[in-house]
Each structure stands twice: as C-alpha cells, then as structure tokens.
Fold:
Amino acid sequence: MRFNEVLKEIKSYEAGKPIELVVREYGIDEKDIVKLASNENPYGAPPKAIEAVKNSASKLYLYPDDSMYELKEALGKRFGVGMENIIIGSGSDQILEFCARAVLNEKEKVLMSKITFAMYEIYARQMGAKIVRSSCYRHDLDEFYELYKEHSPALIHICTPNNPTGDAIDREYLYSFLERVKEPLVVVDGAYMEYGSYKDAKKAIDAAELIQKFENVIYLGTFSKAYGLGGARVGYGIASKEIIKELYKLRPPFNVTTLSLAAAKEALKDKKFVKDSVAKNFKQMDRFVNFALSNSIKHIDSYTNFITYLFDEPLNSTDIAERLLKKGVIVRDLASYGLNAIRITIGTKEQNDIFFKRFEEILNGY
Ligand SMILES: *Cc1c(COP(=O)(O)O)cnc(C)c1O
Structure:
C-alpha cells in the first residue's frame, strides 16, 4: 500500500488513559480508580444537560439539525457575535483541523510555542507543513514576532491558558502582538478560558472584541472542560464571517450529533454550574500548590483545571506516573513533551485526597 508520505512523520495522539484500561490491565476495582489525566470537569456533567440528552434520545433516527441553529444562536448571544461568526465542531479539535486544512500545505509553515497542545503539530503534519517552535515553554510573543518575520508562517497557534503547562498570557500582551501580525491565520485557543479569566481578569479574552479588532484571528472554545461535556465532543470557533465561510467548506455534514447539540445548549445556560466548578477548582488547586511547596517540588502557576509538577533527579516523571497508575491514580506524564514533569487534573476533594496519599507513598519510597 502507498500511504501518504506525511504519515511517516506523525505519532498518533496519546490520550489520557481511560478508567476501563486500568481496570483491565491492573485489575483495580473501578471505584478505586481516580482519573486526573484529561482535564475533564470532576464535578460531572450539568444535570440539565444530562436531562436534555435523555429527552433527545427518541430523535436518534433523524439526522441532527445541520444548521445547528439553536446552539449557534445561544453562543451568539453569549459572546455578543452573529451566527455567521460561529462554526461548531466535534470538539474544538475538529475546528483546529479545519484551520490547518484551510491554510497549510507542504510549502507553508506553522508557528507555535515550544510546549503546547499536541494536536497543533499533528494537524500541521497531516498537511505536510513545516513546524516552527519558540524556544521557551511560555508564550514569548516577542520571540514569536521574530520567528514570524523570519518564517512567514501561514498559521500561528496561541494557547492561553496553555495546555500542558497551565500558564496564561495577558490580554494586552496578546493584543500588542496581534497588532503587528495581520497576515497569517492566528488561532487563539481558549479551551481553559473559563478558568483563566476567573483567576485573573487580565488574562480574560473576549471573543467578540478579539475578532472585531483582528480580522485574521479565530477564537476557539470547548464544552469539554469547564462545561463538563468531554464525552459530547462539542467545541466552537468564533471569527470573521470570511474565515467562517472558508472553514465551512471543510466541514463534513452533520458533524455534531443531536445528543451533543442538546447537551451543549443546556450546559451553556447553566452558568452557576460552570462558576461553581471553577471556584471549587481553585480552592482545590491551593492544596496542590501547598503540597508542592512543602515537598520541594517545583510547579507552574496554573490558570486552568490542572497543575504541572516539575521534577528534579532522582525523581522521574515516567516512573512516578507508572507507580501512580499501579495504585489506581491516572495522571499525565509529560516526558513526551521533553519535560521531567507530570500534569495532574485538579479533582474533587475526595479524588485529591487519594492522589496526595498515593503520591506521598511514592515520594517516601524514593
Ligand atoms: C482539551 C483541549 C482542546 C479541545 O478539546 P475538544 O474536546 O476537542 O473540544 C483544545 N485545545 C486545548 C488546549 C485543550 O486542552
């Protein structure tokens, strides 16, 4: 078979390990497993969203509403943009894919931070594009600007707050960069914006203002994190109608299911659920910061629902992640990003109690 050449360069995405796998491989009881690996909302899905899914189940024989009118209208109201400024995807991941396909090919380049969301690279490689990375894990936009002048990328990825590091950039800093970069498509990925803007208003990026000021920018949001709908696969892009029109040409029909549309629409209404989830997140986050400080473990100040612990020898992230797994605690090893670090999703109080207990046992064994 003659596979596409570009596939040689691609390592497929490695998702956080599912609970089922740990049950199968380690024979641990499902109730004893704590999954803190994929930045899901540990407080579950909003109850009204669950109800909406049940109520829509009888419509499963019909194709979904391909115009996604109701969810688009609700998102438009929430963000203060027109429906023509919105595209909805099977996760914001699908919109990342549309962006890559819209502007990249073998001759083009894409610019991103040294350590950022792994899918940016995968979608770029699928298009055969070249990847240019900044040298620092933080989004150093002065360096981004130098690299932009040197390489003229067709696509730039800015992830704020950033996954898997958890740090975020100030709105003004982002704007001063965007004012100088008018030509490429710039993706501002706000998957964790509900968390970042709660912790520090300076990090808040308003999608309507962003696209009004900058015609070449698309803002991405998702229902998978603070909204508690990781299993529904719904995300959205907000941009000028010219950008949205082009992305629509790449969209498969009925790309979001009836059940997911219903769930997202209800989740969007439940502002209290999101607010409470975010507030509880940062209350629990304090425990992770304190634990790190009292155990001399370095961490990155986080604006998200996860925290990154950075280790020094002899502590080894891969080994620690494996030992945690054998004790039923799933975290994300960041060795594949070139870091001796683990990323831990902030869980509920009870989940975190278990994490600290298990992690302490491991630290004591070193
Ligand atoms: C989780 C995540 C997404 C997208 O998630 P979907 O579930 O596909 O909506 C996008 N960007 C970042 C940085 C993420 O962490």
Observations:
- The domain at 5-44+272-364 is CATH 3.90.1150.10 (Aspartate Aminotransferase, domain 1).
- The chain has a mean pLDDT of 96.
- The pocket of pyridoxal-5'-phosphate is lined by residues 91-93, 117, 159, 163, 189, 191, 222, 224-225, 235 (CB under 6 Å).
- The radius of gyration is 20 Å.
